Amino acid sequence: MNVMGHLSRIWSRPGTYVLTAAGLICSYPLLKGIPWQGDDHLHTMMEVVATCLALLVGSMALVRYYSRKNGTILLIGVGFLGTALFDGYHAVVTSSHFAFLIDADKTSLAPWSWLASRIFLSVMLATSWLCWRYETQHGKEVLLGEKSVYFGTALLVAGSFTFFALVPLPRAYFPELFIHRPEELVPAVFFAIALAGYLTKGKWRNDDFEHWLVLSLIVGLVSQVVFMPFSATLFDMQFDAAHLLKMVSYVSVLAGLLANMYAAFRVEINHTKELTAAREEAENALAKLSEYKFVLDEHAIVAVTDQSGRITYVNDKFCRISKYDRHELVGQNHRILKSGYHDASYYKSFWSTISRGDVWTGEFKNLAKDGSEYWVSTIVAPFRDAKGRISQYISIRTDITQSKRNQEELRRKEEDLVERVAELEDTQIRLEEQAGVLRELSEQLSIERDRAQVAAKAKTDFLATMSHEIRTPMNGVLGMLHLLADTELSGEQRDLTETASVSAESLLTIINDILDVSKLEEGRVELEAVDFDLFDLVHRVVALFKIQASEKQLQMLSEFPPDLPRFIRADPTRVRQILVNLVGNAIKFTNEGAVTIALSYGRDPSGDLLIRVMVRDTGIGISPESQVRLFERFSQADSSTTRQYGGSGLGLAISKQLSEIMGGQIGVDSVENAGSVFWFTFRAQTGNAETVNSKKLLAEADAQNMRVLRVLVAEDNAINRKMITTLFTRRGHTVEVAENGRLALERVQDGEFDVVLMDIQMPEMDGIQAMQAIRALDGEKRSIPIVALTANAVAGDRQRYLEAGMDDYVSKPVDPEELFTAVNRVVVPKRESTDIDDEPGVCPNSGATSSEEESTASMSTPLSAMPIFDEGKLQRMREALGEDSLSELLSDVPGETARLLQDLQGALAKGDFDAAQDHAHTIKGLASNFAAVRIALLAKDVEDEVKETGSYTGHLGELENAIDEARDWLDQTPRAIPL
Questions:
Q1: For 140, which DSSP code?
Q2: Crossing angle (nearest 10°) for helices 40-67 and 237-299
Q3: Which is more confident, 219 or 474?
Q4: 0.70 cut: is pTM over it?
Q5: Is the C-alpha dihedral spanning 411, 412, 415, 417 positive or negative?
């Protein structure tokens, strides 16, 4: 239930209580004049029903008590069981069927036996509330033994029955008094105590059982105050109405118990589902461990020893570098590899560290079986058994032999070139500093890899942690290698540096592919359903690979059946992603001939389209045994494929998962040395051609109608100014910029412009103030068209800006088509009356603004699940700005947002919440303009809280993490940005 529904339920319950009480009280004057007179048969029937209801309520309450021990529920359950006995006794002694057995005056026995039931129940309900109140005040449970409660209740019931049988009863009716039965006010007092107690307790707001219990107490109290005290004779209207209300009160408690049991049942079902899902995730995580172990073994030297140093496990890379077979190593002490290079104190320090349970990090010079020496950078970590004792050690090593040789060679050159000693010393210092950074990064990588291996036991968090922690230092390694390449290096040093860069980039690509697989398996990939031109999508893919194919002298062909629907509704981004992967593989593994994209389709019983896309090549083909594992992760046709052609072996696995979530399949038909046919299918609906073409036609019409304009861009953010300037200059317009509203006013006064694009929130003078100052100028300049640009896009903002004097309105993030459409509306003369008269500030065929759409999306999607960038918006920006301009602009976004975040943190620390609101608004606008949706939404939350409360109680860690993720995402360009 959402928050508004929950609040509505809370506020409706007091109204229900008031209406119930008022309705029952007001009904009494209406019923009072009815000459009703029941009989003992009707009375007996009502009491039998009441007895059964009380027995059922008491039994169900005790069932709930034994499932969840609670003294309050025990008293309520026992109270209704005792009431059932009293009601049953009352039914028997007042029935005409048993009159011959009971020697008593019915006019006395009937009222007093009725009263005994009401007093007992009201006292037990009041006691149950007092029990809860004691527990709350003293912080402990009331020591109510079950046997004591049962025995006390039985004793009280038996004593009451004995009293009625042996003691003469006084008269029950007092017609001479205003209240004919004053004794009925006794249970009314206890009902009132219980009602007041449970109302002040407050659990009725969200607990269905206590809500119905309060209703029962209201009915019982009205019965004892309004109806029964004014009964003049047996079986009159007040008498029978009170009995009827008693049954209604029992039914209310029964309804509360049933609602509570249903809620408990639903909770148990959800808990069972969660346990099942958790078990499946654990099984999947265990299944992945072997795959991750393979990745680790390919990039590290791994060994495990017992407590004494005897080897119990080595991986293949350990055997390759040491020249020993596995059976020659397992069972041997690790000293078999000692080279004699390190002294005894070095080994003593090593064993002292790991023996006390600490992690040791350092370097060893080891001796291989053939007598050759090699260097390794080593991390050794102890593992403990269930009793906390060290049982074994695991070591992860990196081969640094070549690095050591490089250092040795540098030292020899220093000795040979004495005359250049000063220059070489400076160079050596720089190289040693850079080598130190590289060693630290390498050691950090090893530490993070070790932590990732240990964290594998944490099940579902393993892959995400490993990918992130390894990718971060790898980016640093690449950066340091680039810096090293810019220094003065020898030819051999430059070759070594370039080799290291290529290896690091290959490793980073593999890690990123693994992360993509993780996102698919975690269900974080959501499909969109939009209308698009399937033929145009295929032609664009063909154009994308045309140069690559021509370099290998391959033909690129496409085949479409004549009846294939051209316009379909599906997810074009995912279709294009799979197709690009298959075509790229086809070109990679084809040396002569052609690569052909062929489409066909069918329909399922529901009428949906089932599109089949085939990619045929004349390449090397795939053997049958290799086809079996082709779509598995980290798998290729054979072990030599990766060496010859490159790749991580994840592209087809990702394509397989994407095709399946689109309701299709993927497969391959191939003969070795005779080419391959890769195919995939996906479900789609017939699209609307007008929808697809409308934006193209609108853009073309705007381009034809738009003359060369002189544009003034008033925007305080440099990146936003650069983006908008690029948009307009690429279309041939001239652009000037102003950093705030005051400068914008000066530019208008001194120059001639066709239109002003005015940001709303700017320093010194905001957009509204600048617009008002321009409107106050003399001459034609006062009527210059002004278009508002703002990240504010809540309901009413558009109308407010237009009423303030703006000519049009475009919300951030700025959509290029929407921006040019708005400019076209305000600068192009009005069309003839037969043309469409667009409403100011509203783009044709559009609904909510993009910011409104983002807000709506954020209400239904957790922020942690939102993407860092809106890929669809990035594609539109690419088409408007061009690849180079977009990449240049995007590269500045994380740094600028990080700077603004520092300003925001500083303003919050100083308590300057007006400045903090401005900084948050600027971050929101900048991020929105460049499709950084998660950053924009997080900044909007900060802005809204500061604006509404005048303070900020949250923390900015999530916003800072989102900025870091955006930086990591952009570091992977162009791979991460969809083409």
A1: S
A2: 20
A3: 219
A4: no
A5: negative
